[in-house]
Amino acid sequence: MKKILLLLLMIGCGSSAGTINNDAGPADARPDAVSTVDAVQSLDAMPPVCMADIANDRNNCGACGRQCLGTNACRIGRCEAETVIENATKLGDFTADNLFAYYTGIPLSQTAHRVWKMAIGSPNPPAYAYIFADNNRISQFAFDDSQLYIADPILLGGSRYAKITKYSKDLTASVTLAEYQETVTTAICLQSGFLYYATAATGANGGDIRKISTSGGAPSIISVTTGNVQFIMADATNVFWVDNTAALRRAPLASGLPVLVAAGRSDFFDMDDVKIYMVRKDTQDLVTVDKANSQLRILGVGFSAGGAVDSTYIYAAQNNKLVAMLKNGSPIKTLWEALPEDLGTCIQTYNIMRTKVIGSYVYFSVSKSNCAGNEPKNFLYRIARL
């Protein structure tokens, strides 16, 4: 029996990728000795066993079978993040597919705020789609397999316009789906062939939630807002948004008055079929909110951004580290933090701004300020999901 147990404990880590371990180091990733009575029954519940140094092995970094991207190294059980965008300013929303990253902002050596497309891992200059005349950040855009959908804030001749624009992913063609005068459009999302977006009259605090088909046609108002919307998402039943009144609200897709879901100031959230996940910046906690009954649960404190989810984990910024935790709230695993050698000689502070789960990766944007007091530089990184 003991020989069988020894053989089982020496098995490699092929089936254990994605297990979160505590940050205590390689020694704590190996189980202590167990009695022969309980061993076979408890094997499935044990931490994975790797015949490798999970603190430094890039093929088993921090957990069995967790491979670091490309040639990125593993340091103290954490993969080095791959740099997708560096030294940009006014970095707003971003997304990616297998080959390209799409984002809004001003890249290095450029002066205008645009929609940019950049080949991932390529040193070539990015291609751009459109110049935003007022150089405001675009807080959110939507996308599918072939199109990008953007709520454009435009300042032209002293007047403010708003456009809902559909771009081809190669950025060679665009179609205006809706256009407004003296109006601001902010957040936008896509659900089942319709775009849901927020509008507000210039200078107003509050406005409407509207929808329009991705094929065009007349937009319709489905609800009203009492504050300026920062982020919006929809599922098969409702549209959800956060605004500057420190509230998460929802309304039926068909139309209806807004309903308060949870209190708290946030500029991003994510959701699955059952719950909403978000960081409340006023209380610096990571919470889940049940869609059915609005029951709120605090998972942890010390959070500043994020709340992106996959089927198993939540990815968020805690104490300026990118961390992952199980959706039930424990344990926490640090995936990335800026070490002194990463920051250089003149970086004073850095902040993780937004996290997103895209395909097999976690993308996260970081703002770094320097000693000279210049405008903070923005970076976009990606790292393999657990």
Give a concise summary.
The chain is mainly beta.
Folded structure, characterized:
- The structure is a single chain.
- The protein is mainly beta and 386 residues long.
- It has a domain of 80 residues.
- Helix content is 5%, strand content 49%.
- It contains 3 helices and 30 strands.
- The strands form 8 sheets. A 4-stranded antiparallel beta sheet has the order 3-30-29-28, with no helix packed on it. The chain has a 4-stranded antiparallel beta sheet with strand order 4-5-6-7, with no helix packed on it. The chain has a 4-stranded antiparallel beta sheet with strand order 8-9-10-11, with no helix packed on it.
- A hairpin with a 4-residue loop joins strand 21 and strand 22.
- The radius of gyration is 23 Å and the shape is globular.
- The chain starts with a helix and ends with a strand.
- The N terminus is likely disordered.
Write the layout of secondary structure elements.
Layout lengths: L1 H8 L26 H7 L31 E2 L2 E2 L2 E7 L5 E3 L3 E6 L7 E7 L7 E6 L8 E3 L3 E10 L2 E10 L5 E8 L1 E9 L2 E8 L6 E6 L6 E5 L4 E6 L3 E6 L3 E6 L6 E5 L5 E3 L3 E6 L4 E6 L5 E6 L1 E7 L3 E6 L2 E6 L5 E5 L3 H4 L3 E12 L2 E10 L6 E8 L2
Antiparallel strand pairs: 1-2, 3-30, 4-5, 5-6, 6-7, 8-9, 9-10, 10-11, 12-13, 13-14, 14-15, 16-17, 17-18, 18-19, 20-21, 21-22, 22-23, 24-25, 25-26, 26-27, 28-29, 29-30
